[in-house]
């Protein structure tokens, strides 16, 4: 472990021995992880992507432990590892950790994370069921997960729902629902939806009536961010 006593992690409050604080050394957090604290295990595990000074095999051990215990954030990172196909994460006493790209494990960890309410996992499941491969393609499942993510506040998922309703892709065409979800996406701060709505109203696309005022309104919304 590199410079363990000198590196600090902030912004991740933990509860240790009945006291709450906002700054811990890496050594403190690893000790907490070793004692079984699931959130500490997750933080250590995140170092696989965050370039923290923790040996990868140590980080992976705690990440996997947190994921198996039901931490939805750790489960989502497990999905990312299998998606990205990271290899040679580190050398431990039993050799290198090898994680090849594996769609089955991607799906398994995504489902677990989504069951825990992870909003990014819900969105990624929507993508997975559309783009993964013909075997796992399931348009109804994709729409179901996009809708759940959008309802929980995922702007990109809301935009996808809106687009699919306008186009009649994977779902029955419904212009009103399409516009509703696109507007919801703008309210969630997803700027691409502002741009899309501005274009739709400017050109009268997808059967939507032209409206220069609305086009300018959504254009201003995109320009202001």
Oligomeric composition of the shown chains: single chain
Strand order of the largest sheet: 1-2
How far is the N terminus from the C terminus? 41 Å
Tally of strands: 4
Q: Any low-confidence stretches, pLDDT <50, length ≥5?
A: 1-19, 90-96
* Percent range for β-strand residues: 5-15%
Word description of this protein:
There is one protein chain. With 225 residues, the chain is mostly helical. The chain has a domain at 1-113. The chain has helices at 26-34, 38-50, 56-68, 72-84, 103-115, 119-131, 139-151, 155-167, 175-187, 191-203, 212-223, and strands at residues 8-16, 19-25, 87-92, 95-98. 37% of the residues are buried.
Give descriptors for this structure.
225 residues, mainly alpha, two-stranded antiparallel sheet, 11 helices, disordered N terminus
Question: What's this model, at a glance?
Answer:
This protein is mainly alpha-helical and 225 residues long. The longest helix is centred in the first third of the chain and has 13 residues.
Helix and strand layout, with pairings?
Elements: E1 8-16, E2 19-25, H1 26-34, H2 38-50, H3 56-68, H4 72-84, E3 87-92, E4 95-98, H5 103-115, H6 119-131, H7 139-151, H8 155-167, H9 175-187, H10 191-203, H11 212-223
Antiparallel strand pairs: 1-2, 3-4
Helix pairs in contact: 1-2, 2-3, 3-4, 4-5, 5-6, 6-7, 7-8, 8-9, 9-10, 10-11
